[in-house]
Amino acid sequence: MSPAVSIVIRARNEAAFLGRLLAGIRLQDVADTEIILVDSGSTDDTRAIAEAHGCRLLTIEPERFTYGRSLNVGCAAARGRTCVFVSAHCVPVNDRWLTRLLEPLRDAGVAGSYGKQLPLPETLPYEQRNLLLGFPFASGRRGSQVSFHNANAALRREVWDRFSFYETLPGLEDREWARRVLTAGWRVVYEPLAMVYHQHDETLAQIYGRSYREGVALGRLDASVAQSPARFVVNYLRGVQRDLRFVRCYGRPWRSVVELVPQRFMEAYGTYRGVKASAAEIRRG
């Protein structure tokens, strides 16, 4: 018997959080599931933890890894009618996470859904603001015109058969997928009650690297996006302004500003450099 739901997890050296995620999945009130872990060269206990929890293990070579390719590998192996994506450093908030994530797909016109992500207390300050403002506490589910986030998402396998993820993008593969799907007449829904805790424990260099990759992807997806030194400064200062407003409105300690300022700088600078690199790549043909 094929499961109704295939949960796909991308992982590389995720031993710190993976066990908690898998334990949270086992507590869900949706029993007819399989868990597929797509590993891209872990050297810690990631694979052993996955095996202990009964996951199906797939391997992708690190040098061939892209975010889109790993999702496609997982979806291709999935036996369920629905594919669920969850980041290896997420933990479901409660045992109704999966049910609520799947509910929007009862509507035949909905291609995919994505849920709310909450920061943990130890989450970096800049990421706390990104998560709390990027995934709002809404009064109910709503249609999305531009967003989809595969750290906590579900989609119909039949839709993936027609619209697989682009494998050459270094980031933003989920937003690009949503754009094609929306253009084809499907809908994507944000379900705020499908909640997970999402932890990013990044160094400043890692913040820069992630932002750079996403900047490259942004430039490829929208050639009209312009970046200049002046635009970088404006974007950074606006980001700091929003951070200060966030600290005040959410009652965060003012000492967190000392962390926020360099974190926001690396995010803005990485995006700036990534978009510029993409533009240079396009000019070279």
Write structural notes for this entry:
This protein is of the alpha/beta class. The mean pLDDT is 91. It has 10 helices and 9 strands. Helices cover 46% and strands 19% of the residues. Strands 1, 2, 3, 4, 5, 6, 7, 8 and 9 form a 9-stranded mixed β-sheet that branches.
Order of helices and strands: EHEHEHEEHEHEEHHEHHH
The largest pleated sheet is described as: 9 strands, mixed
Proportion in β-strands? 15-25%
What is the global morphology? globular
Query: How many runs of DSSP E, i.e. beta strands?
Result: 9
Rg, rounded, reads: 19 Å
Q: Give the structural class.
A: alpha/beta
The pLDDT mean sits at 91
List key phrases describing it.
285 residues, 10 helices, alpha/beta, nine-stranded mixed sheet
List the helices and strands and how they pair.
Elements: E1 5-11, H1 15-26, E2 33-39, H2 46-52, E3 56-59, H3 67-77, E4 82-86, E5 90-92, H4 97-102, E6 110-118, H5 125-134, E7 142-144, E8 152-156, H6 157-162, H7 173-183, E9 187-198, H8 204-221, H9 229-249, H10 256-284
Parallel strand pairs: 1-2, 1-4, 2-3, 6-9
Antiparallel strand pairs: 4-8, 5-9, 6-8, 7-9
Helix pairs in contact: 1-2, 8-10, 9-10
Summarize the model shown.
This protein is of the alpha/beta class and 285 residues long.
